[in-house]
Amino acid sequence: MKQILAVLVFSSSVAAAQGLTPLPPESQTGGFAIGCQAYTFNRFSVVEAIDKTAAAGGKVIEFYPGQKLSPTEPTVVFNHDASDEVVAKVKAKLGEAGLRAVNYGVVEVPADEPGARKVFDFAKKLGLRSITTESTGSLDTIEKLVKEYGIGCGIHNHPRRPNDPSYRVWDPAYILEIVKGRDARIGAAADTGHWTRSGIKPVDALRLLEGRVVSVHLKDLNVFGQREAHDVPFGTGVSDVPAVLDELRRQAFGGNISIEYEYNWESSVPEVAQCIGFVRGYGARK
What letter would DSSP give residue 21? Predict the structure, then answer.
C-alpha cells in the first residue's frame, strides 16, 4: 500500500510540475488512464464509440474531428465547430456511460490565433487534458494558448515517409528538438504503433522523450518495421507492451493511453477489451 501511495504521489507531483491536471484514480485501470481513441470505431458514430469504449472496459476516450454524432443524427459532425447543443449531448452521453473525455486529435491547429482558439475553446468545453496535432508550424500560437488555457498539446507521429523528407515528426528526436525550451505542457502524443512501423523501438523513443510525453496511442503490431503491419491484442505482437508500460510507469506518466485499434474495424470490441484486460493484469502483477 505504501508503494502504491508513493507512486500516486510521485505521479501527481510530476503532473503538477508540468502544469497538467492529473487524471484521477477513478479514470485508471491497472495504474493507467486507458481507453480508446474514437477512431477505432470510425465506422460508427460518436455515441456508438462511447458505448463501445465502455463495453471494452475503457474509462477514458479521445475524440477525433469529423465523426458523425449518432445513428439518429448522421449528418451532424462532431468537431471543434460543433454547437454548444451538440457538445452538451456528447457530455451527457459520456456521463451516462461513465467515461471521461481526455483528448482531441489528430487535429490541425492553424497558426492564426482565432482559428487555433476555436480548437482550444472546444477542448475547454469538454474538459480535456490535451490536444493532439501535427501542426508544427503553429507552435508559437499553440504555446501561447497552452499557457492561457492550461491545456497540453502533444505532437503526434505517423509512420516515416521515405518519399517525403519534409515529413519529420515520425522521428522522436525531431519532436524533442522542436519542443525543447517551450512550455513543459507541449510534448509528444506518442504513437507506439507508428514508431514500430518506422523501425523504431517504442521504449527507446519514450526514453528519449522522458518528461515530454503528453499522451500515448498504445499499439501492438504483428510485424516490425513495415507500414503494412496491423494491430493485434496486447502481448501477442512484436511491440513489447510490458516494456512500454514499465517505462511509462518509471516516468510516472500521468496522461491518457488511447487504444487506436485499426484492424477488424467492424467487430474490434473483443480485441480492444483484451488489450484493456492486458493492462489491468499488468497493474495487478505490479
Answer: P
